[in-house]
């Protein structure tokens, strides 16, 4: 292989100084290079990179440069994420539309498309389940796909989620204990992530150097570590908050004032839509509550 040859690929794994890049199904092992470190750029899985391939197994290539990222997260450490499966428990922890909206706002800010998956449907009554289903229909109308399986992990539901992986880099996120690892294990057999607090505590001791890896599943890439829980979700300015509600954006050009915050202004199309029942009242209430938090009038949400 000529020394000057350059290839483009996507980092799918990193381990002690090495980066594995995927180029149309072929994996190349490379090393990081001083110039990247000098620029204080830490390559992440999900990064698109140019590299020089090495000559063979004992001659690795070098990473040369990273392409600009569309987004990047710290937890999990992944770049260029397309979508998140937002895992929400029907119970244990309690189903919360407020927390659900916080996650959605966060993901909107990172330009990560969200799909909502409800777990633990076996732990609620039929009437509680019906309420959750009603709420999910509201989120579907906004444009978020939702999945609810009764009993949990029915094959048809899992197939539908997998079908959404194609050509996407998917991460899983949601509240602690919502069932993210359990769900990933059902969706990507063979990963066998530890689930439940005790087994995870044991695992942490054993695999302290473990990093995130991307797995090919159903024609896409899936991160094998679940993401952030609920801390710091409201990382948005008061002024940008309204833009993170897609259903507000859909009608906001009909507000009388261009700068309408959808609070007290006359001729507000968002408030009209809430009154007409086309915007979920819970979404609007949460918007107002988040505004109060952001303007410092109420304590922010803290993790239990
Ligand atoms: N009854 C019931 N239990 C479930 C279901 N899904 C997950 N669990 C249980 O819920 C607990 C938490 O599940 P995990 O998959 O570890 O949750 P997690 O979201 O990965 O948790 P963290 O890593 O702490 O963020 C485990 O004991 C699971 O066995 C479900 O559909 N029904
Ligand atoms: Zn308005």
**Alpha plus pi helix count:** 10
What ranges have pLDDT less than 50 throughout 5 or more consecutive residues?
A: none
List of distinct ligands in this structure: guanosine-5'-triphosphate, zinc ion
Radius of gyration from CA coordinates: 22 Å
Number of domains: 3
E-strand count? 13
The CATH superfamily of the largest domain is P-loop containing nucleotide triphosphate hydrolases
Q: Summarize this, please?
A:
Its EC number is 3.6.1.-. This protein has 304 residues and is of the alpha/beta class. The chain has helices spanning 34-38, 97-109, 126-142, 155-163, 180-187, 197-206, 238-241, 246-252, 269-276, 281-294, and strands spanning 7-15, 18-23, 26-31, 48-52, 61-66, 72-73, 78-79, 83-89, 113-119, 145-148, 169-174, 214-217, 220-223.
List the topology elements:
Layout: E1 7-15, E2 18-23, E3 26-31, H1 34-38, E4 48-52, E5 61-66, E6 72-73, E7 78-79, E8 83-89, H2 97-109, E9 113-119, H3 126-142, E10 145-148, H4 155-163, E11 169-174, H5 180-187, H6 197-206, E12 214-217, E13 220-223, H7 238-241, H8 246-252, H9 269-276, H10 281-294
Parallel strand pairs: 3-5, 8-9, 8-11, 9-10, 11-13
Antiparallel strand pairs: 1-2, 1-4, 2-3, 4-5, 6-7, 12-13
This protein binds guanosine-5'-triphosphate and zinc ion.
Residues 119-120, 122-123, 152, 174, 176-182, 195-196, 200, 226, 229 line the site of guanosine-5'-triphosphate.
Features:
304 residues; alpha/beta; OB fold (Dihydrolipoamide Acetyltransferase, E2P); Rossmann fold; Ribonucleotide Reductase Protein R1, domain 1; 5-stranded mixed barrel; 31% helix; binds guanosine-5'-triphosphate; binds zinc ion; nucleotide-binding; zinc; Small ribosomal subunit biogenesis GTPase RsgA; ribosome biogenesis
